[in-house]
Every structure is written in structure tokens, then in C-alpha cells.
Amino acid sequence: MRVRKARLPDADAIHALIRSLSYDGTLLPRSPAEIYENVRDFTVAEDDAGRFVGCGALHLYGPHLAEIRSIAVAPRAQKAGAGGLLVQALLEEASVHDVPCVCLFTRIPHFFERFGFAAVERATIPDKIYKDCANCPRLHACDEIAMARGPLPDTAVLGPAQVEERLVPLQVP
Ligand SMILES: CC(C)(COP(=O)(O)OP(=O)(O)OC[C@H]1O[C@@H](n2cnc3c(N)ncnc32)[C@H](O)[C@@H]1OP(=O)(O)O)[C@@H](O)C(=O)NCCC(=O)NCCS
Questions:
Q1: Residues 148 and 120: beta-carbon distance below 8 Å
Q2: pTM assigned to the model
Q3: What is the pLDDT of residue 40?
Q4: Distance from the CA of 51 to the center of ligand 1, in angstroms?
């Protein structure tokens, strides 16, 4: 089992795996276009024969926060270490970017606790709320646990205040 950064030819396998786990809300659905556009966020896991077995993505909100998303291993390959390798690779990627806090939303908090994640109030990561939750049909019936690893951010880049700021013309010196 090994992990590597995804390449564009991996996108269809990534999409198929995420789609297979989206029907019951285990994963957020991602369209092919969204995966093509964000394929550089993804890391993939391969078995010893080089076959795709899983994926996970690291979304960068900014210097204050990143999020692990779309982490999944094909049922036939689960419990062989791929999920753990993916989490570790994505945490190393956050570290390469000097991002101190990594968050995620999950129904299986126990899986992530071993990597140092702890449950947090979802209001402590407003960027995630504005990116996904605000438009989610399950906004008021969400059964996912918000988790974070590292110091919680004291800033945000998404949301009404940030939109207003972007509308103010920049003063170029
Ligand atoms: C969660 C997932 C990525 C783990 O992948 P994996 O390759 O099986 O993980 P690993 O082999 O590295 O680790 C297996 C360990 O995780 C634990 N684990 C796996 N699924 C779990 C779950 N649903 N709840 C709690 N622990 C779980 C196993 O019990 C095992 O523990 P052990 O090492 O003490 O025996 C995989 O089960 C999966 O794709 N699940 C469906 C998609 C999903 O729920 N993704 C998470 C969305 S946030």
C-alpha cells in the first residue's frame, strides 16, 4: 500500500469512489468538474499492484485553516492501512504549507481521534460553514461531528464580512 499525489487521470476513479459513498450522506457528493478542477488537492492510495484503492483531499482555506475532505477507501481494500496513510499524507501536506489547524466533518470521529483530531463546536470554523454547510440541504439535520487538530483559527476568509471587504476598492500606494 502506498500514497501519492493525484494526477488528472485519477479523477474518474476518485469520482466513482466518492459517488458510491455519497448516496447515504457518508461523503459530500463531488461532480466530475469539481474533481477535475481540484485534482491537485487530492492524494490517492494504491495497492501493491498499483491499483487505485482510495483518496482524500486537503482543501486550503488560507494560512489559518485547511480541511481534510472526501477521504475514502474502496470497501475491498479497507482495514489494510490505506485510510491511515491518506490522513497522514494530508496532514504532512498541511504542514508543508505551514497551516496550523486542520479540520474535518465526519460521522466516524473515532477513526480520526488517533491522528490527534478532537471534536469542536462547528461555529469555531466559520469558513467551513460558509463553504459547505450554508447551502447544504441537511443544514438543520446534520449528523456530522466537527473535528479539528491544532489551534483553532481566530480569523476567517469566507462569509459576509469578508465579502464586504472585497467590495471596498483597494488603495494602491
Ligand atoms: C474511514 C476509512 C477511510 C478508513 O479506511 P481504512 O483503509 O479502512 O483505514 P485503516 O486501514 O488505515 O484503519 C483501519 C482502522 O480504522 C478503523 N475504522 C475504519 N472505519 C471506521 C469507522 N467507520 N468507525 C471507526 N473506526 C473505523 C478500523 O476499525 C481500524 O481500526 P484498527 O486499526 O484499530 O483495527 C474507510 O473505512 C472508508 O472509506 N469509509 C467510508 C467513507 C468514510 O466514512 N469516510 C470518512 C468520511 S469523513
A1: yes
A2: 0.91
A3: 98
A4: 19
